[in-house]
Write a structure and sequence with these properties.
This protein is α+β, with helices and mostly antiparallel strands. It has one domain: CNF1/YfiH-like putative cysteine hydrolases. Helices cover about 30% and strands about 25% of the residues. It is built from 9 helices and 14 strands. Strand 7 and strand 8 form a beta hairpin. The two termini are about 20 Å apart.
């Protein structure tokens, strides 16, 4: 159910992880483990999976926090004030959010992905952690940099923040139209470094992980672990929208500190 993710240097008291699908039923695009509740899965199945995850982590359900992502650049800070809100106000606070930041202990924050790049950030000296969902739109808009800025406001230092990426689509699998390449060009990305062409089709393929590494470097982050599996190539271990369609489960990538 859980696969731990490693920072380049161990982060004391901080655990980053991603979920695996488990025993897959080929006829069920939500099998077997899915905690995302807004992509069409049965609500009871999602609830069961969340309960299993909370038992594994040793936390209450109230301490498992994930946003309703919309490829925005909105960052939400999970603090004591948020935790005191009633459930309706908490849901409203997480609507259209694509990154979470917190200093709270025993609170698991995470994002759901099915090919986009999940990024976990941690400053173990300051005790500040973050979870980021970076699709190509969020990458172009700098969602990872926005999360770093939110961490710094909570006391983190860019030079002390480490990043690790979770399962996401590889460059070979991420074919895009030229209009997407133009968006990266307009945003100032070095497209020669992140784009290559399929020799047979001429189609562009973007390295979304390398693009986010550049965003993090701009934000002052020097320690980034980009070594992760491809969600589409490893479709039996992780969910992939390109392989299964958007009406399917999601891989949950998260972080918690003690």
């Amino acid at each position: 159910m859980i696969k731990h993710l490693d920072f380049n240097t161990p982060a004391k008291g901080i655990t980053a992880f991603t979920t695996e699908r488990g025993e897959v039923n080929a006829r069920n695009k939500y099998s077997a483990f899915n905690v995302c509740n807004y992509t069409g899965d049965d609500a009871l199945h999602v609830l069961d999976c969340r309960m299993m995850l909370c038992m594994e982590l040793g936390i209450d359900m109230d301490s498992l926090i994930m946003p309703h992502q919309t490829h925005s650049v909105r960052v939400a800070v999970i603090d004591d004030a948020y935790m005191r809100l009633d459930i309706d106000k908490q849901e409203a606070a997480l609507e259209g959010v694509d990154a979470l930041v917190t200093k709270l202990g025993d609170v698991c924050i995470g994002v759901n992905t099915a090919d986009c790049v999940p990024i976990i950030l941690a400053d173990d000296k300051a005790g500040v952690i973050a979870a980021v969902h970076a699709g190509w739109r969020g990458t172009v808009a700098g969602i990872a940099e926005a999360a770093v800025k939110a961490m710094v406001k909570l006391g983190a230092k860019a030079q002390d923040i480490q990043a690790v990426m979770g399962p996401s689509i590889c460059q070979e699998c991420f074919e895009v139209g030229d209009e997407v390449v133009k968006e990266f060009e307009k945003a100032g990305f070095d497209t020669q470094a992140i784009v290559k062409r399929n020799e047979a089709s001429g189609k562009a393929h973007i390295d979304l992980r390398k693009a986010n590494e550049a965003v993090l470097a701009k934000a002052g982050i020097k320690s980034v672990n980009t070594r992760c599996e491809c969600s589409k190539c490893s479709g039996k271990r992780y969910f992939s929208a390109r392989a299964l369609g958007v009406d399917s489960g999601r891989t949950f990538t998260a972080v918690i500190k003690k």
